[in-house]
Amino acid sequence: MLKWIRRQIYWRRDHERSWARARQPDENGISSFQRDCLDTLELVHQRAHRALPLVAEVTASTVKEKFFRGVLADGRTFFIYVDGAEVGERNFEEWDFLTPEELCVAFGRAIEAATPPSR
User: Fold this and answer.
1) Of 13, 54, 102, 115, which alpha carbon lies 20 to 30 A from 71's?
2) Domain limits at 20?
3) How many structural domains does the chain have?
4) pLDDT for position 62
């Protein structure tokens, strides 16, 4: 039991260190995590030889947070938040991943599944 508790304490510490700067909005209100996810979105579409979907920057007035929204080739909607993302019904939340990079990879895989290569 103590081993499990220790592992959880270390995971939380490492998580906080990894996410501390990634979730901080810059002067434009966009986090580095969001920029990384947008880069991943572009990379997946380049590899598939597909046009990048239109991505709208949205400012939620109730929470003062910018996020991005778009629609993929298969019709699923995606969102990129300061510290998480969604693709269709799948939610990718910060506390499910040790690092922002891990979440970004999972987001990219979900995008790939919705973006078949063009012929």
Assistant:
1) 102
2) 2-113
3) 1
4) 72
